[in-house]
Write a structure and sequence with these properties.
The chain has eleven helices and 28 strands. The protein is an alpha+beta fold. It folds into three domains: 183 residues, Beta-Lactamase (2-Layer Sandwich); 171 residues, Immunoglobulin-like; 173 residues, Heat Shock Protein 90 (2-Layer Sandwich), CATH 3.30.565.10. Strands 1, 2, 3, 4, 5, 6, 7, 8, 9, 10, 11 and 12 form a twelve-stranded mixed β-sheet that branches. A five-stranded antiparallel β-sheet has the order 14-13-17-16-15. A hairpin with a 5-residue loop joins strand 27 and strand 28.
């Protein structure tokens, strides 16, 4: 995990502050909403007590038939086209086990009461009402009750079209006056005849009729008889529910300003309404995008439960939300729900607080009172508090994240600079970079923070490494100089001893001593040669030459010398000019080829390649053979380091002298010096396929001025 990512995670921990603020704001909003709910509930209960004090007649407690206001001019023709808007509110009139078989709709205008009955009955067994067997055929029995008068009508028809109902009987009604639905006169009589239209389709039949508003009954019932599936179920009389102007007038006296109040029956039918929700004029000056954003924030972070509430439209004849049924069960309830949008006002972000309380009479729930109050979608102070909190938190988080990210970037950049400088110094065996003739100190060496301390520690360590490396580099020269005198003493002593008469056993030890002295002399000569080579490299003069021609000439010379090994070459056809010492590059190639020859199998391959890179070139020598040990790749070019097997390092003595000089690991050290002279480096590594080893020389040419002695 990078340092920048760690600091970014640390910056994210500051989210705990806005999270705590959000929880506080949400808790405050919840408490404020609870206060509003309690206030509105208290107002609704006070209004319910005021209605009770006026002895307002409440709707009946049981089931009733609701009479809708007619939404358009009604035409009695047996078709349900003009009832389409009221169709979702059709009431069941059949038995409970087949509630969807027969349905009834009622509506009224100023002159007429309209009735539409729909019956599902695919089997047709029809007869007119005047037929003596009509009661055994498919028919409807309509019962109307007004005051103490009760009449029953037989509705049947043998074919679609106009029908005339038959009055079955007339008796005294037991219904009383359950609900004052209209201003009809008390002595009004029920009609003696009823007529309407009978229509049929593939699913069943429809009956549509009307009667004068002046003859509207107080209660009615409709029983359906199916000749193919007769039943004895009888639907009791149910009172008619209409919107009560008197109750609406009573509500208008007590309804608070800016609120809407509705009275509901025991089944949720709206029977009285008064008041109007206050419009939110302050919203008109707020841009629509801001209103949408504020509403989104509020409903997502503060009051997500509002998005699940039901929308109370003003024109619904029946309400069925959970709080309504809770109030009808005798327990007061409240709910927040979105307000219906008003065209052109942009009120879609408003909400309505609704409080529903039960209406009781003699401890019996007769209905519910619903009081509604509109409010801003961001009520009270939570909008401003939340937006300020979100803005300040986001600003602080962005600022802290940016500062930490920038700090991490600068810190990472400083660390990478120090790392790169140390890596370059490590590859240069501890020597610092140079700008012309002057060394470049490590970056951050003068900083006073922890990275400055680390840079100074690295500089001290690199100085130690450079001193030790210089000691190792000059060790061969020092040893060769110091061993010359004792080696000469040993050789002269052996020569003198050889002139003396010694036993045969002693002669054997004398031969071994002379062989060891010769080997030691060969080592000293090799070390002296390496020292002279280093001094020669330091004082060589540069010239312009074609590197491709030099490498090609070396390859041509190697081919006959390496038989039966196979020599492959990948050289450019065009000249590759370079400013440097061609004889030193050829000598470096000799060292690399000699090294490759030692490890390549008898019939193996050696591949020599030359490629241009930028302002320089790369010369590579790859050979088939055993791979390099993983820990030796960076040490091969140091002095006195070799990975040759011990058998290869044992010299074979021929006539008292070693036939093959010992390998001291000085050849690759010279290769490194030649590469550094040409402002490059020497690299070694295993081939990707594991078939062998590759040594590379990266050359950029010598500086274009005379070189002095190298330190």
């Amino acid at each position: 995990m990078s340092l920048r990512f760690k600091l970014l995670l640390l910056a994210l921990s500051t989210l705990a502050l806005p999270l705590a603020g959000w929880l506080i704001v949400r808790q405050m909003e919840e408490l404020l909403r609870q206060g509003q709910e309690q206030t509105l509930t208290a107002s609704a209960k006070a209004l319910a007590r005021s209605l009770a004090a006026l002895k307002t007649v409440l709707p009946p407690a049981g089931q009733a038939f609701y009479v809708h206001p007619c939404t358009q001019g009604m035409r009695v023709d047996g078709y349900a086209d003009d009832w389409a808007q009221l169709a979702p509110y059709a009431q069941n009139i059949g038995p409970a086990d087949d509630a969807q078989k027969a349905r009834l709709l009622l509506c009224a205008d100023g002159d007429w009461l309209y009735l539409l009955a729909q019956v599902r009955d695919a089997t047709r067994t029809r007869a007119d009402a005047s037929d003596e067997n009509a009661l055994l055929r498919d028919h409807l029995t309509l019962s109307l009750a007004h005051n103490d008068d009760l009449r029953r009508y037989l509705i049947a028809s043998a074919a679609p079209g106009v029908f005339s109902a038959l009055v079955l009987d007339r008796e005294e009604s037991k219904s009383g006056h359950p609900w004052p639905h209209s201003s009809t006169e008390a002595g009004n009589l029920l009609p003696d005849t009823l007529g309407g239209w009978w229509q049929e389709d593939a699913d069943g039949y429809r009956v549509e009729l009307r009667l004068p508003r002046a003859q509207m009954p107080d209660a009615l019932t409709l029983n359906e008889f199916d000749a193919d599936a007769p039943n004895n179920a009888h639907i009791e009389l149910r009172p008619l529910l209409l919107r009560s102007p008197d109750l609406s007038a009573d509500l208008a006296q007590f309804a608070p300003d800016g609120m809407r109040v509705r009275v509901l029956s025991a089944e949720g039918w709206v029977i009285a309404e008064s008041g109007q929700l206050a419009a939110l004029a302050s919203k008109s000056s707020t841009p629509a995008l801001r209103r949408w954003f504020e509403s989104l924030i509020y409903r997502s972070l503060i009051a997500p439960d509002m998005t699940r509430a039901q929308d109370f439209a003003t024109n619904l004849p029946r309400l069925s939300s959970p709080e309504i049924w809770q109030a009808l069960s005798g327990v007061a309830a409240t709910a927040w729900h979105p307000a219906p949008a008003q065209a052109g006002t942009g009120q879609g972000s408003s909400v309505v607080l609704a409080a529903a309380v039960p209406l009781k009479e003699n401890n019996e729930v007769r209905g519910a009172l619903l009081l509604e109050q509109s409010g801003d979608a961001l009520p009270l102070l939570t909008n401003r508090a939340l937006l300020i909190l979100i803005g300040a938190s986001l600003g602080a988080l962005i600022f802290a994240g940016a500062v930490l990210f920038a700090f991490a970037g600068v810190l990472g950049l400083r660390i990478r600079r120090l790392r790169d400088a140390v890596e370059r110094a490590k590859h240069a065996n501890g020597k610092p970079e140079r700008s012309g003739e002057r060394p470049v100190p490590l970056p951050l060496i003068g900083a006073r923070d922890e990275l400055g301390d680390l840079a100074r520690s690295f500089a001290h360590l690199l100085d130690e490494v450079a001193a030790y490396t210089d000691y190792l580099r000059t060790l061969a020269s020092k040893l060769s100089h110091e061993l010359q005198t004792p080696l000469a003493i040993v050789k002269s002593s052996l020569d003198n001893l050889d002139q003396q008469s010694v036993s045969t056993d002693a002669r054997t030890y004398l031969v071994r001593a002379r062989s060891g002295a010769e080997r030691l002399g060969a080592i000293v000569r090799a070390m002296s040669e390496a020292s002279r080579m280093e001094r020669a490299i330091a004082g060589v003069d540069a010239e312009e030459f074609d590197l491709a021609a030099v490498v090609r000439g070396c390859v041509d010379a190697y081919r006959p010398l390496l038989v039966p090994k196979r020599v492959e070459a990948d050289l450019p056809a065009a000249p590759l000019l370079m400013h440097g010492a061609p004889e030193l590059i050829a000598q470096a190639l000799d060292k690399l080829i000699d090294n490759a020859r030692s490890f390549t199998p008898e019939t193996g391959w050696i591949r020599i390649a030359l490629h241009a890179i930028g302002d320089g070139a790369i010369v590579s020598v790859a050979n088939q053979g055993p791979p390099l040990p993983p820990t030796m790749a960076d040490r091969l070019f140091d002095s006195l380091v070799s990975v040759r097997p011990s058998t290869a390092q044992k010299a074979t003595v021929v006539n008292g002298a070693p036939a093959e000089p010992p390998h001291l690991g000085l050849g690759l050290s010279i290769v490194r010096l030649i590469a550094e002279l040409h402002r490059g480096r020497a690299l070694a590594g295993n081939l990707a396929d594991g078939s062998g080893v590759e040594f590379s020389l990266e050359l950029h040419g010598m500086p274009r001025h005379s070189l002095g002695a190298r330190n």
